[in-house]
Design goal:
Elements: E1 3-19, E2 22-40, E3 45-64, E4 79-94
Antiparallel strand pairs: 1-2, 2-3, 3-4
């Protein structure tokens, strides 16, 4: 289990975020490449470092806390796009044997 790897990554998300006075409510999907290395710490423990880059599409309602969003304008998505989404990860795993 100690080696380099390259793979595909994918995600689907449904989110409802408050950041300061802004609210983001929507969906996103991404697909990309990932690569990394797994280090053997002991006979049962592994440490994994990986990083990658994905292309993510999103569709969301974006508004501010003072907005009146009951007027029908915010029933549909008012913000959408595609962006590059970086990923860095550190994982610890235990092998049951």
């Amino acid at each position: 289990m100690t080696r380099q790897f390259v793979g595909l990554s994918a995600h689907l998300a449904n989110y409802n975020l408050y950041i300061g006075k802004e609210r983001f409510q929507g969906n996103s999907a991404a697909m990309g490449l990932i690569g990394g290395h797994v280090f053997n710490l002991s006979s049962h423990w592994n440490l994994e470092f990986c990083g990658g880059l994905s292309l993510m599409g999103y569709r969301q309602k974006h508004y501010y806390s003072g907005d009146s969003y009951n007027n029908g304008y915010f029933e549909k998505a008012n913000d959408w796009g595609v962006m590059l989404f970086p990923k860095l990860e550190l994982s610890v795993s235990y092998i049951i044997n």
